[in-house]
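User: I want to check something. If I give you two sequences, will you return the structure for each one separately, not as a complex?

Assistant: Yes, each is folded on its own. Here is the first sequence with its structure:
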Amino acid sequence: MHTPILRAVIALVLWTFVMWAWLYATRIPAMTRLKLTYDPKRPGSEFVDRFPPEVRWKADNYNHLHEQPTIFYAVAITLAILGAGGGLNALLAWAYVALRVAHSLVQATVNAVMMRFGIFMVASLVLLWLTINAALIVFTGPSA
């Protein structure tokens, strides 16, 4: 099955790996520079709290890409299975991906919280719209 919405799904997965690489590209040099060693007997937060904020931001964003986007994946794949992964739904999916990338870039570079929140809210509304489109098909379709 090939449907345009799956391109957006894979794009967001690939972006998650970009953030994963960025996380380690900043964390490992910081560990070396600060001479940090992880002690498994201590709370992990004590280790992470020793990193400069601009290093932690990448890890925070990587974690965020495993939260709300999981709903996006479920909805987008549902729409693909339903044969509704083109047109407006594909456009909304790409808008969501673009907003999540923008959110990542803001959080990982300047971490301007209000700007990040605004992007997150718009992305959430796009995801809600996509979810409503899926719900309308699932709950009002021929087999409902």
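And separately, the second sequence with its own structure:
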Amino acid sequence: MSKAFITQVIQDSTGCTGVAANRAAGELISSIVEEMKKHGGFTLPSFGTFSVRKTKARKAMNPRTGEPVKVKASKTVRFKPSPNLRKSV
């Protein structure tokens, strides 16, 4: 799924122009990101839950050279599908 796909769906369902649909898709995506930053997650009923998880610092291996590399602690996004989504797919 891409922003272009979301834009096309909005344009087809509402009958608005491509520019307005692109703006709406951009606002939708930025609103989801802001919600995840503020609350650490976002839930779409009957679709699933996006959550922000912290990862610990760790040591990894460079596959080309085989030497150890330090990986910093960071945050990542996880997705858990709803039971309805699992059944339909």
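Because they were folded independently, the notes below concern the second chain alone. The CA atoms of residues 19 and 30 lie 17 Å apart. The chain has a mean pLDDT of 93.
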